[in-house]
Write a structure and sequence with these properties.
By secondary structure, this protein is α/β, with parallel strands linked by helices. It is built from five helices and twelve strands. Helices cover about 25% and strands about 25% of the residues. α2 runs parallel beside α5 (about 205-215).
């Protein structure tokens, strides 16, 4: 199935059904990729499909044997200027859900979340996933349950002691470009959240998110 375009079509896919297709998708298949064949996916499953002769529908064929490589991680993150890059990379890493968190030092308050949804769809199509991660509505840091959270602890770059990631971790938190505030660190420490080191350097938030997800994904069973 290599090099066949993949199109996210949402839930309730079944062999023999016909799915209305947007004009830009039909153009992409026929004019850019020069094909009428594709793979369609959603809800963890993938099917072969063909564009109809009139270019208006995708006719769903047989289900493929491709397993969904998506993970179980929920990434809680403070919106940043490059939220699109953060979501793109983390989607490719297999994140299941995104939870935007407004922290004391969050400066990016006007994110176009509809555009972000398109970005995670495109990243899912490209990265061979059979699901698209959910982007939840933003919440404030004070609303979080921090008791079972693993968070990227930039204090480790200055010599602070951090812990190992507990087996089965499914929730990861990364802070904004300015880092967590003192009161937020106090709340994390008091809650029993697990601070992890991402190395001796201070990373950009979008890179920190991907590395933290990679570390947590390695201990999910």
């Amino acid at each position: 199935m290599k090099n066949i375009p993949r199109i996210f079509v949402g839930p309730h896919i079944a062999t023999g059904t016909q799915i209305p297709v947007a004009r830009d998708v039909a153009h992409y298949l026929t004019r850019v990729m020069r094909t009428t064949q594709c793979l369609v996916f959603g809800d963890g499953n993938e099917y072969s499909a063909n564009l109809s002769d009139d270019g208006r529908t995708l006719v769903v064929g047989a289900q493929t044997a491709h397993p969904d490589p998506s993970g179980q991680i929920t990434l809680m993150f403070a919106p940043i200027k490059r939220t699109d890059d953060l979501l793109n990379m983390a989607t490719q890493m297999g994140v299941a859900k995104f939870q935007p968190v407004i922290t004391e030092r969050t400066t990016a308050h006007h994110i176009n979340w509809e555009r972000m949804k398109k970005i995670v769809i495109e990243a899912s199509e490209q990265s061979n996933r059979n699901t698209v991660p959910v982007i939840l509505p933003p919440v404030r840091f004070s609303e979080l349950d921090l008791s079972n959270v693993v968070f990227a602890d930039e204090r480790a770059a200055y010599g602070a002691t951090t812990s190992e990631i507990p087996t089965g971790t499914t929730t990861v938190l990364v802070g904004p470009e300015g880092g967590f505030s003192d009161s937020e660190f106090s709340a994390l420490d008091a809650s029993g959240a697990h601070g992890i080191s991402l190395g001796r350097t201070i990373l950009r938030a979008e890179l920190a998110a991907s590395i933290a997800v990679a570390q947590a994904s390695g201990v999910v069973k």
